[in-house]
């Protein structure tokens, strides 16, 4: 299977798309986060993208 044919989901925290990985083969339906970092951030309430916090001048 080619990389472009792998299933893709959007991360529940950052919203970025991420593709299926072999380690998620048995639990792909339950996977909601693209990384451990996003999984830790899910309950902290810090869902702001850093570029949105910078001032414009």
From TrEMBL:
This is DUF2256 domain-containing protein. It holds the Pfam family DUF2256. The lineage of its organism: Bacteria, Pseudomonadati, Pseudomonadota, Gammaproteobacteria, Pseudomonadales.
């Amino acid at each position: 299977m080619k990389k472009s044919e792998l299933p893709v989901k959007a991360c529940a925290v950052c919203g970025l798309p991420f593709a299926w990985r072999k380690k998620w083969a048995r639990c792909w339906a339950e996977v909601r986060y693209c990384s451990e970092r996003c999984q830790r951030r899910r309950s902290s309430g810090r869902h702001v993208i850093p570029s949105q916090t910078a001032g414009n001048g």
